[in-house]
Write a structure and sequence with these properties.
Residues 138-179 form the MYND-type domain. The chain is mainly α and 189 residues long. It has helices at 2-14, 24-38, 40-43, 46-62, 69-86, 91-100, 104-115, 123-131, 164-188; strands at residues 135-137, 144-146, 151-152, 160-161. The longest helix has 25 residues, at 164-188.
């Protein structure tokens, strides 16, 4: 629990970094890398992964289907950690699942998938997720749109936008720093 709390604290500190020129991504990478170096033994431990997903499931159940915004943020942050641990050797799956957890439906689906072998407490959530519209978040404006209307970045094939203007604005500010890295990761798979 201490390592999970430390990760959440680290991510909250990242939000305080200045992002005027897109440099936050360049500042965050060494911070996260240091966390993973300091916790290598946990990152490789399947019990730690299971704990993270079980804790997120508990928070989901208490959050009244993600209506408690502060719990939703913690769930998102810890799911990100759990996914990075669980799928660190399969970058394509990691990219997809990280994209999924940007929506409520995706969070539920990830929790169902990651806990179904040892827990049935997400069965109700699975039913709820099936009734929800398939949506995705635009990486530029962070708003939800129907999944089939989102445009995929031609460079990295990883991030999605609701229109070309949003894509251009996000490119100038942030994505140009990550696009090449995402492309390299995708090519390795």
């Amino acid at each position: 629990m201490k390592a999970a709390a430390e990760y959440v604290h680290m991510l909250r500190q990242e939000t305080l970094l200045d992002n005027q020129d897109g440099s936050i991504d360049q500042q965050v990478i060494p911070i996260e890398r240091r966390y993973f170096e300091d916790h290598t033994h946990l990152i490789k431990d399947p019990e730690f992964h299971r704990f993270i997903f079980a804790f997120c499931t508990k928070q989901y159940l208490v959050s009244n289907n993600l209506k408690d915004h502060s719990r939703q943020q913690v769930i998102f942050m810890l799911l990100r950690l759990g996914l990075m641990c669980q799928y660190r050797t399969t970058p394509k799956e990691l990219t997809k699942y990280n994209r999924d957890i940007r929506t409520d439906r995706g969070i539920i689906k990830v929790l169902v998938r990651e806990t179904k072998t040892h827990c049935k407490c997400m069965n109700e959530g699975k039913v709820i997720a099936k009734t929800m519209d398939k949506s995705g978040k635009c990486h530029g404006c962070q708003k939800e749109f129907p999944k089939e209307t989102l445009l995929i970045c031609n460079g990295c094939q990883s991030v999605r936008y609701h229109d070309r203007d949003c894509q251009r604005n996000h490119w100038r500010r942030i994505h140009k720093f990550d696009c090449k890295n995402f492309s390299i990761l995708s090519a390795k798979v």
